[in-house]
Design brief:
Number of helices: 8
Strand order of the largest sheet: 1-7-6-2-5-3-4
Order of helices and strands: HHEEHEHEHEHEHEH
Radius of gyration: 17 Å
Number of strands: 7
Distance between the termini: 31 Å
């Protein structure tokens, strides 16, 4: 049964990637500085949601995503985080520059408006690109932990990217992500850590019967009369509260 499920998902996922490539070539902007229409945003959301359905990843939403331009701030566990957030609320994402070199997926990420940043440098250019996206009315999601975690706790936040909300005058919306395991705790298949190759990480997920993802949207934070460090502290505190609330609900 697991072999049949794996084979079926490989075929379906492959066909979906091909569909995403074709649609992105003809329907999404080719220029990185171009904006996204309402139709294009909904197309990206649909493609991400359909990908999750084909992987049999069930998303449970808590709270309400805001509308319009805002900086989404989230904890970071896996590349799946992008699909989970994007399937609920259309957004562009900040990602490490290595993602751009991923086979096929790097091209798709660029077409979906991803802002790429080199580790240890390029923060100024990334901030400019984020501000440009925000000025176009897009939501932009960043992961201030700077790397992925094992999904059991929230790492400290680096505050630099939160300056974009102050510069653009847009709210910050904290978002908490958790991937519960069926028997309690955290699903060990989901964390994308220790520089795993993408396809090696994907294979066990394709064999899994189903995966649950919980995404909690918290009330936006007004960036006025604040600085990036304070915004980082407020965002992390809100995410920790929601993360712990999701864990407590799981145990009930």
């Amino acid at each position: 049964m697991r072999t049949l499920r794996f084979a079926a998902r490989v075929v379906l996922a492959g066909s979906h990637v091909l569909l995403a490539l074709v649609l992105s070539l003809f329907l999404l902007p080719a220029r990185e500085d171009a904006g996204f229409s309402r139709f294009q945003r909904q197309l990206m959301r649909w493609l991400m949601a359909r990908c999750l359905r084909l992987l049999n990843i069930h998303v449970r939403v808590r709270g309400e995503p805001s509308e319009g331009a805002r900086l989404i701030v989230s904890n970071h566990i896996s590349w799946l985080d992008i699909l989970v957030i994007g399937s609920v609320s259309p957004a562009c994402f900040l990602s490490k520059s290595e993602v751009r070199r991923w086979f096929v997926f790097g091209f798709l990420a660029a077409r979906f408006g991803t802002v790429f940043m080199r580790r240890g440098s390029g923060a100024g250019n990334a901030l400019d690109a984020i501000n440009a996206r925000l000025s176009q009315g897009m939501a932009v999601a960043v992961f201030p932990e700077g790397t992925t975690s094992d999904g059991t706790a929230i790492r400290p936040f680096y505050p630099r990217m939160l300056a974009a909300a102050i510069d653009a005058g847009v709210p910050v919306q904290p978002v908490a992500l958790r991937y519960p395991a069926p028997g309690g705790g955290v699903n060990a298949l989901v964390p994308f850590v220790r520089n795993q190759p993408l396809f090696r990480h994907l294979m066990p997920l394709l064999r899994e019967k189903s995966v649950e993802a919980v995404v909690g949207f918290m009330p936006p934070i007004d960036p006025r009369e604040s600085d990036r460090r304070r915004l980082a502290e407020q965002s992390r505190a809100a995410i920790v509260r929601e993360f712990e609330s999701i864990a407590a609900a799981q145990q009930c």
